[in-house]
Design a protein that fits this description.
It is a single chain. The protein is mainly α. The protein has 9 helices and 8 strands. It has a domain at 41-84 and 150-264. It has helices at 2-28, 54-62, 85-96, 99-114, 124-153, 168-177, 193-206, 217-239, 241-247, and strands at residues 36-40, 68-70, 79-80, 156-157, 160-162, 181-184, 189-191, 260-264. The longest helix has 30 residues, at 124-153. The two termini are 51 Å apart.
């Protein structure tokens, strides 16, 4: 009987210890709500357009949206889900091979031909073809460094986070600040290394296929400054793109820009 009582006592102690350990394990488990991220709804989709020339209009209208996300203001404490290296590469290919990219390259090549930039390319159809190829390479290399290479190296989100609410001045400041402030994959803020290092890398690479480029640090800095200024302008366009679409009275269905689908991620 004494031995049986002793065994029961030992068993109770083990049960209490196991219960305590189980409670601690539950307490240590990450809170799903604290580790949840959201996938904001896209601003424009094919189904949202109700007017004529749907594909053409959508191609033109969605270009500023490809690398833009809507900050989920409606969900306090939430953050936008990060994208991995493969998704960053997919974002690059989608943005680079958009039909609008070809139109912009065609326009830039025409301007370059008219100004006889890169005179080594010559004139005529052959010269235009070389300038068109160089323009495509400019856009592709710049987007690769901005969207894939440096964002993967620095664990940075290459997308623009639209504020979408507040005064026009505050939103403009938010857009202007993006070349300096970006988001880490974790959701926190960081210096926008991809913007500056990506721009310099793309401009340096362009010297290999632009025979007419001026060489040297001064010329490189000048071209990089123009490129960053262009990016600032495009960020402002991204921020106010919903209002621009409404201003032109394009028949897109109204959407709640802050709506999002929660995705639980435990780390």
């Amino acid at each position: 009987m004494v031995q049986l009582a002793g065994c029961l006592a030992v068993a109770q102690e083990h049960e209490q210890a196991a219960s305590t350990a189980s409670t601690q394990a539950v307490d240590a488990k990450p809170d799903a709500k604290q580790n949840a991220c959201v996938q904001p709804e896209p601003f424009l989709t094919m189904q949202d357009y109700t007017g004529p020339f749907s594909r053409v209009v959508l191609y033109l209208a969605r270009k500023p949206e490809i690398k833009t996300v809507h900050t989920p203001l409606a969900q306090a404490g939430s953050r936008v889900c990060a994208i991995n290296a493969g998704q960053k590469f997919h974002l690059f290919t989608r943005n680079t091979f958009e039909p609008v990219t070809v139109l912009v390259a065609s326009f830039n090549a025409g301007i370059s031909q008219a100004q006889n930039s890169d005179p080594g390319f010559g004139q005529g159809a052959q010269g235009y073809g070389k300038r068109f190829g160089a323009s495509i390479a400019d856009q592709a290399s710049g987007d690769f460094f901005h969207t894939v290479f440096f964002p993967v190296v620095f664990h940075q989100d290459p997308r623009y986070y639209r504020q979408g609410e507040g005064s026009g001045v505050d939103r403009a400041k938010h857009a202007l600040a993006h070349v300096f402030v970006a988001h880490r994959d974790s959701g926190t803020r960081m210096f926008n290394f991809s913007e500056w290092m990506g721009t310099v890398a793309a401009e340096a690479l362009s010297n290999t296929y632009h025979p007419g480029n001026r060489r040297g640090a001064g010329a490189l800095s000048e071209r990089a400054g123009i490129s960053i200024g262009t990016d600032i302008g495009f960020d402002v366009l991204r921020e106010f793109w919903p209002e621009t679409v409404r201003k032109f009275k394009l028949p897109f269905k109204e959407r709640d820009a802050s709506s999002a689908s929660p995705v639980t991620k435990l780390h």
